[in-house]
Amino acid sequence: MAKVSALLLPSERRAISGLAGLYASRMLGLFMVLPVLALYADELAGSTPLLVGVALGVYGLTQACLQIPFGLLSDRFGRKRIIALGLVLFALGSAVAAMADSITGIIAGRALQGSGAVAAAIMALLADQTREQVRTAAMATIGLSIGIAFAVAMALGPWLAAETGLSGVFWFTTGLTAVGLFVLWRWVPAAPRRVKHQDVGMDRGQLGRVLVRPDLWRIDLSIFALHLTLMASFVAVPLRLVDAGIDKSWHGLVFLLIMGGAFVLMIPLVIVAEKKQLMKPVCLLAIGVITASLAGLGLPLSHGMGLFALLLAFFTGFNLLEATLPSMLSKLAPAGAKGTAMGVYSTGQFLGAFLGGTLGGWLSSAFGLNAVFLGCAALALAWWAIMWSMPKPPPLASEVVALDETPTETLDALLERLAQVAGVEDVMLAPEERVAYLKVNRNTLDEAALARLLPASAHSRDAGDAG
Q1: I need a labelling partner for 110 at 20 to 30 A (CA). Which of 92, 240, 396, 421 fits?
Q2: pTM metric for this prediction
Q3: CA-to-CA distance for 11 and 26, rounded, in angstroms?
Q4: What is the pLDDT of residues 334-346, one digit of tens each?
């Protein structure tokens, strides 16, 4: 077994920076529309609150339907080709929306944007380009880029729309995607090989193990409910800011302050959740804060500083769950099945976005803005009750162990010996990848025994798992 330096190679730096930028720019284009579409929808022919909600969330439907097919196509035809195809579709969708003068045109453009469902292909290319011991940090960089993209979109979207109109937001996205294609072509290295990575990609053989786990279902439900409430709320939040006397040209500054404050409030709670093994209480706290803030937004409290405080509370809870739910999923997923579990999780997220936009639009159309918030608060309360009965996540972590020089005939014996080590809760060997996936309990792990079995192996620890 070969020991490899954990320092990033030049090709890994280029892959991580380029792909994180691609992922972030794509999400930036999707998110910039959230704080502005409801405000500018009266300029579009045929606009109704219901159709505005559909336009906000329809990208999630096409994403959910096509993310797995795009991942499989990237296995067959090459990562960069399929990513390029997805970016072209995203750019075409942005252009269609930019030229639209009706709400149906916006819906068509947003659906086409979502059809470029290359998230799985980007993650697979990143896995191809990185070694096991640096892959977790690389994936964390992608996650960080998404969070930054969301915050920037909330501030940039309103400013850009005020300067250039709604079409300008979509043209900006089109241009940004063209830059992304150039980065993919000239900066991101071609993958030296295409390997099926169990910790990244969807494995249909593992799907059954993932789908029958009630604890994983609760995490999938959580990301579904989180993005449902987010998308439904943005049918009404921009209009509520206008009702509070805030001109739409200032909404970007408002969101910038709120997102910045929410980030500062979130950080200590994430640290407490991880270091003190308080994932479940912090999760329940976040859902409770979201429920209370949504209820408040549907009541007369949502004026002046009260409105600002309620939105700050909502986004603090939202960002906290965005950070902690993937960590909980990683702890709970069986060894070697994290990629499959994340595929189901992402599908729940996209479906939540679609149904949330549609539900928010219907509630606004039928019962008014307050009903959007109160309806979401009722759903969030039911979500909190379901999560209350969830068992405390165990203090498990993932490790990936390189087996580069291990003879195939000794793998079965190695699997048996690894399973007998105290603290090793689950093991899966992936001979085609020449790695072993382990789930370990850090409180009881016999590290000396593990080191004797794997004296010179390269280890990759999932940083998000260390409870």
Answers
A1: 240
A2: 0.88
A3: 22
A4: 777 777 888 889 9
